[in-house]
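S.,

Sequence below, as promised.
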Amino acid sequence: MAFPTSSPLNLPATTSAQPETKIPRFIYGTAWKKERTAHLVAQALRAGFWGVDTAAQPRHYREDLVGDGLREVLTEGGVKRENLYIQTKFTSIGGQDPSNLPYDPNAPIPTQVKASVASSLHNLRCPDNTNQDPYIDCLVMHSPLPTLSQTLEAWTTLEQFVPHKIHHLGISNIQLPLLEALYDAATIKPSVVQNRFYPATRFD
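The prediction came back faster than expected:
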């Protein structure tokens, strides 16, 4: 079901340097769609979705095919990149398939993060004929790292890409005490928290 562009949630800038971003009320998720990802993303955008969520996690997502579907629709001319909300994720080693991940698992955390962001920017780039620099509306840490220190090390690395390559930062699968610690320590505050909720437990 498509949703109208007249019902976004306005996301205030968390620093004066960050652009304002409109977050759709519904975002098209792309996990587990495998080889059909490009077709389904293009179909969703044509149907009226203007938000897409993916991840640099080949174990469950085909971020490269999300980009293929995105470029297919942008090339048609009916949709402009600036009217879309594209969100992806940095997934730490614990959530990756060791045989297929977008960075060297033996590299330092900042190097892992930079390699993952570079891969995402390439995957989600605009069509070549637009000469538009790639950017990500929101990059979400898929989960905290094993320690607060490691989480902050990854976060401060992501901050280096804001606001030009990444407009906003977020975090997923996080408990409130750790979120508060991250928020207090971060220069660029989380704009998005993406957690799963279930009726039985009210939180996963």
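Residues 6 and 187 are 32 Å apart (CA to CA).

Coffee later?
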